Amino acid sequence: MVDYHSDEEFPSLNNQDEQPLPKGEVTHVTVHASGFKDFLLKPEILRAIGDCGFEHPSEVQHQCIPQATLGTDVLCQAKSGMGKTAVFVLSILQQIEVTGVDAVLCLVLVHTREMAFQIKEEFERFKKYLPEIRTRVFYGGVPVQQDKAALKQSTPHIVIGTPGRTLQLARDNVLKLNSVKYFVLDECDKMLEANDMRRDVQNIFKLTPHTKQVMMFSATLAPEIRATCKRFMHNPKEICINEGAKLTLHGLQQYYLILEEAEKNRKLVDLLDALEFNQVIIFVRSVDRAEFLNKILNEENFPSICTYGKLQHDERIKNYKQFKKFNSRIMVTTNLMGRGVDFERVNVVINYDMAPSEDTYLHRVGRAGRFGTKGLAISFVTTNDDKDVLEKVRKKFVVDIPQLPEQIDASTYMTA
User: Which Enzyme Commission number(s) are on file for it (predicted)?
Assistant: First the structure.
């Protein structure tokens, strides 16, 4: 059960007035024929969008932004790489009015510091011509006194943070949330399925005004999590893109390879030597394996970086920036980078260790083939458990995953 003080404070919306979930009939990542100008966005926002080279919204943006800019609560499920982040970034920048305001108006909660850092960068590039809007990011790993000093110096209008640090700052009365008008959960299923993080989110939510816009986004939403999400919302517009296609990723070539544990390292090196790629992410199941594999790759003259949750904060952010800026082409990681974080140049994902579940598999392989581009995902299958997950992926997402052929045509996974 969700730990709310009362049902009145967080109204349940399971009634006949609730709008039915629209079943999107899109079978791949489409770019809509309309332009961003059709959303009647501020000229400053349209100019920034143009600077980024975007002309037409994706399907999720086409369906969500008109609703979100009206202040409607939005619960959105759409596969990875469709531009969900831009939905709430653009919608908030369109609505927010900061003239003469010295208060936090928008709060975005995420589950990792990399996601927080990335979303702040999205706000920065789209508010390029709205310099009066102040943003700030807060997450664990940074001395809390540093955050407190920053808040005393200047109050941000938009805060992006992880739940633990955000709640700490709010309880210490240095981050005041009583003026929040926009409340966003990105990767909301991840935020609400873990008891500790869910409790932090709930406690933060209670510190914000009763009347506000709530938006939640994820690639996967189990029925029980969807119900929990809706308890935070008032008559939400539910948007589900590509439900009919079971969230498979158009343009992503997916293969598996059966091999023994002792064969993995040699096969991985052979693949990296044979494949053409812009950037590749290699997923493993533990920190020790990540560090060990990273060491092996560097010894084999494949310069790689390694990142995981327990890595020191400065090192994590340094590695994130290094990979984001294309200064490194190979990243070894745990599931830390399996959700939400967007690296545009990644076109190959290798599951060195098979994902533990079908949803984790979807999030991992979704790092490649972003926004409808081509990509390649290869999974090493070693145990019976690995085989079971592979079969569950095939059934749940209605996708054909054949055995890895001797040769792969680079044109099938490299975008020209």
Answer: 3.6.4.13
Distance CA 119, CA 124 (A): 9
Sign of the dihedral through C-alpha 394, 397, 402, 403: negative
Question: Given pLDDT bands bounded at 50, 70 and 90, which one contains residue 22?
Answer: very low
Rounded-to-integer distance, Cα 156 and Cα 142, Å = 18
pTM over 0.70: no
Nearest by Cα to 328 from 279, 368, 282: 279
- Whether the Cβ atoms of residue 376 and residue 408 lie closer than 8 Å to each other: yes
The CATH number corresponding to 252-412 among 1.10.287.110, 3.40.50.2300, 3.60.15.10, 3.40.50.300 equals: 3.40.50.300
| The one-letter amino acid at 215 | M
Could you tell me the pLDDT band of residue 52, with boundaries at 50, 70 and 90? confident
Cβ burial of 3 (10 Å; 0-12, 13-18, 19+) is exposed
Is CATH 3.40.50.2300 the classification given to domain 36-240?
Answer: no
pLDDT at 414 over 60: yes
- In order of 8, 145, 162, 174, 317, the CA distances from 142 in angstroms are 37, 9, 12, 16, 11
Q: Which sequence spans correspond to the domains of the chain?
A: 36-240, 252-412
Task: Say if 36-240 and 252-412 have the same CATH topology.
Answer: yes
C-alpha 130: how far from chain center = 25
